[in-house]
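Incident review: delayed structure delivery

Summary: a single-chain prediction request sat in the queue longer than the usual turnaround. Root cause was a stuck worker, restarted by the on-call engineer. No data loss occurred. The affected request and its eventual output are reproduced below so the record is complete for anyone auditing the incident later.

Affected input:
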Amino acid sequence: MHTIGKAAERSGLSVDTLRYYEREGLLPSPRRTAARYRLYDQAAIDRLRFINRAKSLGFTLAEIRELLQLNDGGGQRDSVRTIARQRADEIGRKIDELRRVLAMLEHLVGECDGHGRLAGCPIIEALLGNDGPDTTNTLPRKG
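Output delivered after worker restart:
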């Protein structure tokens, strides 16, 4: 059994994150000592590592919750694959958007010689929407 500090250290997470995951229901409430200290077993550490790895792959907490439920309940691979495919597709869309933003920024930097006063700077003009490239379709969309 491990205290919350040791569990955090062994899982690569912070103590506050462990408490948050417990509040969010991703981690079952741990046993407590008579002094009310949390105690985590190896299964809890393994679960925390699972969550941490899933977060590092870009899964949302809602998706992680679903993956944990599938794992806990003996779900099917197709369900897990669907969640992973959706996450990969979303990350791909974000990468495409970031590539468009990068291309626009590189274009603007190329248009600016970096000398002189700010007046007429193509970067500032584009951000103001004056006679510069239209950046409205290159910015990432929320959601």
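Verification: Residues 1-56 form a domain with the Multidrug-efflux Transporter Regulator; Chain: A; Domain 2 fold (CATH 1.10.1660.10).
Action items: add queue-age alerting; document worker restart procedure.
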